[in-house]
Amino acid sequence: NISDQPGPHYVLVTKSALFTDNNTLQGVPSAVIVISDDAGNSETLTELLPGFYQTNTIQGVVGRNYRIQATVEGTTYESYSKMEPPVDIDSILVYYETGFDGKTESEAEIVVRDPAGIANYYRVVSYKRNQVSTGFNVQRDRLWDGKLRNFNVPDDDGLVTGDTLKVDLLSINERAFTYFDQFNDNQNNFGAPAAPANPDPVFTPATLGYFSAHSITSKTIIVP
Predict the structure, then answer these.
(1) Are 154 and 184 in contact (CB under 8 A)?
(2) Phi and psi for 176 in degrees, rounded to 5?
């Protein structure tokens, strides 16, 4: 990921595993990771831990095209991503519902006014009690271009009065959206007779993973 926020930004390189294996991933050391943009900036990332790399100087700028080249065990993988303009979060809504069992659960949404006449793709990330939401909560505006829209906030359950809730709205590009959307389809493919397929590759040559250059807007509230 590289964003328009202050760095550093990070790249994770791991070995893939079979669908039936456990979720313990092996970081790949000694890879050469280069991120560059169409303004002539380029940087080779620093390895902090085996398979975990960070930038030091390159910063994301809205409108620029970014390229990642990852040379891993003799093979160079390449991908591109354009950083789209940010879209503001209008407000955060928190409300509570009581189920038939009498248990009260919290729900949170953000309100976003989608820019008209532009194909927009979004990812929503939340933070509470020093924890970041999991998974890929993504949206596209194909059916509601230019309208006011509510997005569910991921991992919003268990909110209590006094909690600090921060929500990031990432403006991603279509390529990243398609990867995340297909990933979600696979994850939700419960009861299928076979293991899910990999999402369409965004790297050349094909490998599992994604590269996302995106802008971010944020809003924070204290839960009432």
Answers:
(1) no
(2) -65, -40
